[in-house]
Amino acid sequence: MLKSHSCGDLSNAHIGSQVTLAGWIHRRRDHGGLAFIDLRDSTGIVQVVFDPQHTRGPEELTHSLRNEYVVQVVGDVVARPAGTENPKIPTGAIEVSVTKVEVLNDCPTPPFYINEDVEVDENLTLKYRYLYLRRPSVHSNMVLRHRMVKGIRDFLDRERFLEIETPILIKSTPEGARDYLVPSRVNPGKFYALPQSPQQLKQILMVAGMERYFQIARCFRDEDLRADRQPEFTQLDLEMSFADEEDILDLIERMMVELMSVLRPDAKFSQPFPRLHYADAMSMYGTDKPDLRYGLTISDIGDIAGQTSFGIFHSALESGGVVRGICVPGCAGYSKHQLSDLINRATAAGARGLVTLSVVDADNFEDGIKSVLAKHVGFDQMRSLLARFEAQDGDLILIVADTEQTTCKVLDILRREMAGRLHMADSNIFSYAFVLGFPLLDWNHEAKRWDSMHHPFTAPRADDVTLLDSDPARVRGRHYDLVCNGHELGSGSVRIHQRQLQQTVFSLLGYSDSAIEERFGYFLQAIEYGAPPHAGIALGIDRMAMLFGGQESIREVIAFPKNQNAVDLMLDSPSAVDSAQLDELNLSLKRQLIDRT
Asked: In angstroms, what CA-CA distances link 66 with 28, 63, 108, 384?
């Protein structure tokens, strides 16, 4: 090899040894006749010293060295002079006195700083991804992700799970998002789909008697992107035979606790992970993935609102809506501009408005309550309202009167916004929780049909099966989520393992008998052949790495991500293909698309 040691591995134990190092110049400093260079490789940074009296080679070579040049140095490990140690890096007690240097490759000036964590336009970080990945902070994200995946594999191996790969080219089936389609050259006019998840395949593995399966699976969904979504992503896919909800939840909790001990030993979390019912999560936090590091719980004031003369409240209640709000401590002094900003955020999220109530002096009804609501609320009603919110002097109450869906969405946004402003979310706390008790089905008002709350393979509660025909809205699913700090880390369920019940659910979702046979015939046939009861879960590897690494976007923990338009700026992908390739696949493009491109 071109090096005898790695930069980050050197320590006091190597003092007196001659070493050969190779890496990138991280930073250069000149002091008189001496040149100090921080040399970086994948293990860390060490200071190397160029002294004209000891370093062989032309002096011009030493002066020509620049940041990000790739060099090899030979030298002696020595203790740093007293008072010059650098406690910020592991190698800060020693340095390498260079006797020989060779430039292995030079480098033009990079488009952004690599040796400083200054903010860079994201398009640049995606276009020059190979440079961005050199940043020590980004490199550490890749190391953390590796250690996390290795920890998952080690844990599941001890639990007697088998890692089994499933195909990437599969049949197109509905999973909740658009499929990426791949044309088949040898079967003209037919297409494969890239898997949105290995859902049916892992259930078929249970039919095959594998009993305990897992996979670090690559998945693909053609959907609109945001900070925690990519068109291609990685998940821990897991399935167990002869298991129910408690078996999966116990396994996942033990795995997460073990990962925390390795990846974030300094972090705080509660055990056992609390359990939240879906309906309670929605009513208290407005979302099924609540951030439990702080309070700001939602209060329902519909009964009080109905007694007031406030028309907005009455309008919402009479149309079947709700009146709910949150109480934010210490924000009663918000200016008109600040309150207008909150109102704009609420309306941008779909609310018809936002009622603000500043509690300056709770005992002074005349002058101590600043709100348009004060004109429409009597003394007793205001006292009841303040009691419901447990409001104190100095608090700000934010109230939304709208449909339940809109009210939940808006108050969730405002709750997270205010917690951020007040620095209530401690980044060293991991508030895990399991959310259970989801409805099996969700009514699609636009399409006038039932959709799966999770996916069509989720089992209903045994005592609710008879309601599938008579009252589908009341059917509860055996579905569970793992959430942490406002993120859904994973979702799973007990599966349907009997053909007739699975066919009933497909029919309820609007599939005709012929469509069921065409899309799912092979799957129904498989579970007919002695499928065991089974359950599983899928955890987002990217989101887990983002959370453990303290990042705001999964793009920071993916080596080569795409931007929000699903474009790889480094590879310039997706890109056009020539007509010969299209002819081979028996495909042609629409004329208007050709004109646009």
From this structure: 7, 8, 9, 70
